[in-house]
Amino acid sequence: MASANRCSTSYLIFGASLREGSLNNRLASLAASVVEEKGGTVDRVQMSDFDCPSYNGDVETGTGIPRGADRFRFKLISNDAFIIASPEYNASMPGVLKNVIDWVSRYRPQPLKGKAGLLMSASPSMAGGNRGLWSLRVPFEHLGARLYPDMFSLAQAHEAFAPDGKIADAKLQHWFESTLDCFIDAVEAVKHYPMMKTQWIEFLGEHPTPATERVETSLVPKA
Ligand code: FNR
After folding, report:
1. Distance 4 CA to ligand 1 centre (A)
2. Residue 208 pLDDT
3. Residue 223 has what pLDDT?
């Protein structure tokens, strides 16, 4: 439930499509305007800002992590949460998004750990690209992002927007705004009322040896 006295929170928002006229970019823009209306600070960026060559361990060893991934890392650590509107390609996530997730996962500290996120999608199909979001949850959850349980998928998105950029169906627009409202409350709680201790262990249950151990433990400072 939205509170009139929310503490400040900031949001990295983008559509994970490189296409001009992208439906997901339109949904991301709508999310940005709703978040701003509800008192959040918005950092609205484009997928092209994070463009990277295909992940290659030799490139990483030779010239390091590319600038697109560095920009993604910087935007993640500079904001309290992220909101991504992602297309569904072949019942999964776009390769361009998975590629930058793979690159950014190479940083230590790993910047997705503990980061709050909300996933949404838009597609001309009847399912609105929702299957793609389930696949996208896997790498984000693996990396310790705190993904919001609800997701928003706009079906028949090619004819769903009104000229003012809102969703033409008033009830759907209301659900969209309610989802964002509840997400903002969750982000506020994570930022301003944190647990005392967080930890991220990449492979839970694996026999702990120095060669394989990938553990990060940190104390969360009091707000
Ligand atoms: C698609 N599209 C698509 N849509 C869907 O709902 N389920 C799917 O599995 C796929 N698969 C798929 C594969 C590829 C290679 C392309 C190019 C497209 C259609 C897709 O949802 C549609 O083109 C969206 O408009 C893409 O998002 P943007 O660019 O409008 O944000």
Report:
1. 38
2. 75
3. 47
* Helices 23-37, 170-192: inter-axial angle, 10-degree rounding: 60
Q: Is 89 in the pocket of ligand 1 (CB under 6 A)?
A: yes
100's CB contacts (< 8 A; 6+ apart) are 50, 52, 68, 69, 72
Give the total residue count for the chain.
Answer: 223
Q: What is the pLDDT of residues 13-34, one digit of tens each?
A: 999 999 999 999 999 999 999 9
Q: Measured in angstroms, how far is the CA atom of residue 125 from the centroid of ligand 1?
A: 8
Structure tokens at 28: 């991301």
Structure tokens at 89: 């390609």
Sign, CA dihedral 116-99-216-75, equals negative
Q: What is the pTM of this model?
A: 0.90
pLDDT bin (cut points 50, 70, 90) of residue 196 is low
Bond before 87 cis per omega within 30 degrees: no
Q: Which candidate, 77, 84, 85, 3, places its Cα nearest to that of 40?
A: 3
Ligand 1 centroid distance, CA of 48 (Å): 18
Q: Which of 88, 125, 156 to mutate to test the pocket of ligand 1 (most atoms within 8 A of CB)?
A: 88
